[in-house]
Amino acid sequence: MEYTEFTDEALLAQIVEQDRLALECLYQRYSTRVFSLSYRMLSDQGASEEVTQDVFLNVWRRASSYKTGRGKFTTWLFGIAHHRTIDELRKRTRGKQRSVENVDDFLNLESADIQPADAAVANSEYATVRDALLDLPDAQRAVIEMSYFGGFTQAEIAQKLDQPLGTVKTRMRLGLKKLRAALATKLRGPEL
Amino acid sequence: MTDPRDHQAISPDLAGYALDALEDDARALVKKHLAGCEDCTSELEELMEGAASLVFTVPTVAPPERLGERISAAIDAEVPASDAVVGSDRTMPIPDVPPGPARHIPWYASPRLAWGVSTGLAASFVAVVAVAAVIGTRLNDRVDELSAQVAIQEGNIDGISASLGTMEQDAKQVQSDVQQVSQLQESADTLEQQLNDLRWLQYVTSTGAWSTPSFFSGGLQPQAPQGMLITHSDGEEARLIINGLAPAPTGSVYQVWLIYEGSVIPGSTFTVDRNGYAVVTLDLLGDATEYVGASVTVEPSGGSEIPTGVVVLEGTGQ
User: Which chain A residues are Cβ-neighbours of B85 within 8 angstroms?
Assistant: First the structure.
């Protein structure tokens, strides 16, 4: 059986056994996603390469910490990638006032610049998630995008939107739950 | 055993944890709580799944081919990775990656690349010296240019002083005009009040998805502010339409509080227009059966976590 036919979890089990080909296969599957996320948030190719490198080295070193049955592999992987990117973003902007105008970039979901290059993807994950995201009330989508892509904390968002912190927390929670529920309904495949 | 009070305080922060949107101290509290709370751990998994899906909204950009080789070289340079994975005993798939890899062997550790870096540094030094000379010359030019601009501005100031005398005469005429505008403004206010009343009615009659309104009042006086709350049939959104509410004191805002069985949830803050009119959109928690009512209080600018100010409007649910 070719590695390309292995599930993510099976590849991860191989990585625990120090199988370099398994890591290479996972890298082929997800490096573009990880790099794209980081590049979108940092707008810096060199830093995004460093982040992507760190993420896959972490997969190599910490494969055994992933627990099957505790969420999807992609959730684990993208969680690591996002956390690492946020860390880099906050390190760069610490002590600096970030402009709220940048938030408009995140809300511009229907603009041509975020169309994926891969046409096949456009018909599957991208379109599905985009639709689910667009279905959210504007207020919930805004706080999710400001935090996820902009790296703003809940307290910063509350200040920028002039809303109580409790309202921001409630919107994030409702928005993420709805997003997850919408995807569970729309996606039929085992993986996002 | 997890303290239920901790659970109540921590669970609203789970979404922030999933989105990496917590301050460091709040994140540490959530992490500590998760170790002993299965309910929160399960909810966090769902929230993280929602967060991870956002990756798919990002336009794809392929990393450079050399990146794969660089990772491979870094692994080659490491001590056996078995040391790294042994002892890793996380009980859940929540990422908490340190700022940099713990034993990251950088790609530039390669002797071949290190040589390239040294050569590059020497070339950079020469370039810096040359650039400094150019910058010095440009700075002198800039000083001359700014001096000329200052002289021009001084001439402009003299001209403006002469114009001031004429402007004083114009100011008297303006005062007269202002009185007329004030009279027109009063008429416009009356018309706008009527328009607001029409908007109010339009909300109720034009949207079949909205509930019958529940009415709010700020008192029994004829001029007391009035409010009307309508909820959407999906139970997740409500609108509070307010009329006749005086502007909030300086440094304050109005804030809506949604009252559920056993809890008060902070809602949006708002201000009113000069006729005391506002339409406030509210997020409900999706379970209309537990909704009891709502109130509006005066709160410090930015809003509050719990009600602290005077109640100016209140009403009960359906």
Answer: 16, 61-65
**pLDDT tens-digit map of B87-141:** 333 333 344 444 444 333 333 233 222 223 333 443 443 444 445 445 555 555 6
Rounded Cα distance between A187 and A185, Å, is 6
pLDDT of residue B208: 61
Strands B278-283 and B237-243: antiparallel
CATH number of this structure's domain A98-192, picked from the four choices 1.10.10.10, 3.30.930.10, 3.40.50.720, 3.40.50.300: 1.10.10.10
Q: A173, A178, A183, A185: best mutation site toward chain B, by most B Cβ within 10 Å?
A: A173
For position B81, which CATH number holds?
1.10.10.1320
The pLDDT tens digits for A103-132 are 334 433 333 333 344 444 445 667 788 888
Q: What 3-state class would DSSP assign to B273?
A: coil
- Cβ distance A177 to B237 less than 8 Å, yes or no, reads no
Task: Name residue B283's beta-bridge partners.
Answer: B237
* Interface residue B194 vs chain A (CB under 8 A): no
Q: Which of B105, B122, B156 marks a domain boundary? A: B105
Least confident of A143-157, A170-184, B109-123, B191-205: B109-123
- Distance (Å, whole) CA B134 – CA B129: 9
Closest CA–CA distance from residue B8 to any residue of chain A (Å)? 13
- Nearest by CB: B18 against A113, A121, A176: A176
Q: Which domain holds residue B77?
A: 4-105
For B251, residues 6+ apart whose C-beta sits below 8 A from its C-beta are B300, B301
Distance in Å, alpha carbon of A139 to nearest chain B alpha carbon? 9
What is the secondary structure of A59-97 as a DSSP string?
Answer: HHHHGGG--TTSS-HHHHHHHHHHHHHHHHHHHHHTTSP
Q: Is the CB of A180 less than 8 angstroms away from the CB of B81?
A: no
DSSP helix/strand/coil, B307 = coil
- In chain A, the residue whose alpha carbon lies closest to the alpha carbon of B98 is A84
Tell me what ipTM this predicted complex has. Answer: 0.84
